Amino acid sequence: MSDTVTLKINGRTITASAGSTLLAAAQSANIYIPNLCSNEELTPYGACRLCMVEIAHGKRTRMVASCIYEVAEGLEVQTVTERILNVRKLVIELLLARNPYHPRLLKISHELGVQASRFKEDVKGCILCGQCVRTCREVVGVAAIGFKGRGRTRTVATPFDKAPADCIACGSCAYICPVKVIPLEDKNNVRTIWKTEFPMAVCKKCGRPFAPEKQLAYFRKIANLPENHFDTCIQCR
To answer: Terminus of the chain with fewer CB atoms < 10 Å: N or C?
Structure first.
């Protein structure tokens, strides 16, 4: 079996790795497809639907999410058609109703020619892309947060909305969030995230706080490191 496939995107012949997604193939060829929930470090998810494209095998065409649809030999893909643009405009209007202020969403809406959302504002901030949940589960490996509720009431939350027992306060969820709505604060040797306070470890050389104690304990455990491995910060090692 070949390790590569040949397909066409917007009329251009593209060679892509077998098993890769249409979004990845387009990006490797410098073809822009807007997206919010995709990240190369995470399992493809298909949440935001901004990356919809139109594919054709022969005369049959259909819409697919390019971030979860794999490339195939002979596939023909269009990334900008009237049908695609209508879907993207609808999606960005729905997202703007939840978060009408973030620069990244406003940039995409401007690119699509959307001046404002036709839908009633129900400002939540979170756009339910799932990157924070997937990062916590797939990258960090603790699954301290997840989705709660359905439809308009769906949110990202900790179990039972209480202090997350498994959270190590690493901040990966806040870092990965494309619209930066997960509050994280480091103050007075304490990191506050998910409405929970986590003491920070203090460097034994310079005296500066440099990481949550719980995060370092987790790293020592999974890597089988000695107890004093994180006594000093990176700058003092």
So the answer is: N
Count CB neighbours of 211 within 10 A.
Answer: 22
Which CATH number is 13's domain given?
A: 3.10.20.740
Residue 106 shares a structural domain with residue 196: no
Quick check: is 123 in a domain? no
How far, in Å, CA of 108 to CA of 72, rounded? 28
Among 131, 80, 82, 79, residue whose Cα is nearest residue 104? 131
Name the residue range of residue 208's domain.
131-236
pLDDT tens readout for residues 29-61: 999 999 999 998 999 999 999 999 999 977 788
Number of structural domains (the chain) is 2
The pLDDT of residue 2 is above 80: no
Query: Cβ(40)–Cβ(107) under 8 Å?
Result: no
Q: Are residues 139 and 188 in the same domain?
A: yes
- CA-only gyration radius of the chain, Å: 22
Q: What's this model's pTM, rounded to 2 decimal places?
A: 0.88
CA distance 57 to 73: 10
